[in-house]
Design brief:
The protein has helices at about 1-25, 35, 70-75, 150-160, 230-245; strands at about 95, 100-105, 110, 125, 135-145, 160-165, 175-180, 185-195, 210-220, 225-230, 250. It has 5 helices and 11 strands. Strands 3, 4, 5, 6, 7, 8, 9 and 10 form an 8-stranded antiparallel sheet that branches. The chain has a domain at about 95-250: Mog1/PsbP, alpha/beta/alpha sandwich (Protein Transport Mog1p, Chain A). By secondary structure, the protein is of the alpha+beta class.
Length: about 250
Amino acid sequence: MIRQYSKLIACMFAGGFLALELGCEQQEPPKPSPASSSAPSAPAQPQKPTPPVEEKKPPVTPPLPSGAESSATAPKALPAPPATQSTPPSAGSSALDLGGVSITIPAGWAVEPIAPGPMAAKFAYRLPKADGETEDGIVRISHYANMKGMDEANIGRWISQVKRADGQPATKDDAKITVNEKGSIRITLVDISGAMSGGMGTGQAGGGNQRAINAIIDHPAGPHFLRASGGVATMAKWEASLRAALESAKPGQ
């Protein structure tokens, strides 16, 4: 009996200790985690609202009137150069400025188109043919500054392009050569007749019945060359106006 009470008391003490131990284990506070042991973070600042970005719209082009599309899209043409070579003054209207010298174009000379080329004339005029002839005469005006001081060479070249009526080459004795000086202008005139080739004559069929009246117009910005040729009767018709044009030469711009 006493042994049973002893066991009971021992069990009671053991249960109490077990309950006490379990209670202590339940009341032990949880260990703080590393994150909770760190200092509290600062409160987040409120974000300012981003202003809306204004969308740039392309400029609105007003509609073109009907028929204006081609003029608006086409590139602008460059301004035309001064019409000093392509549109000489009409005969007898005004002085023709050649650059450094000017001459008056006589009445009756008709403007002639010029074919482009490195040795092309600056101006050209047609002399209406005389009665009984089939071809008009021609006047060509050119400018070669690199030929200054080469008068004799040019005269010799012109004469070499002419043959006499007997078929022999013309010589200087066959030409009438005169020199006229007026201030800063010197005009050398070469008058010769015969069958012509090269740059002499009209370049058309004329046989040996042609005449050339060529002039070297020398001046500080020269020389200029005036070469006129045609049938003998046509050149006789226009000889006075040719000489008048040369005599009208005066310093230009």
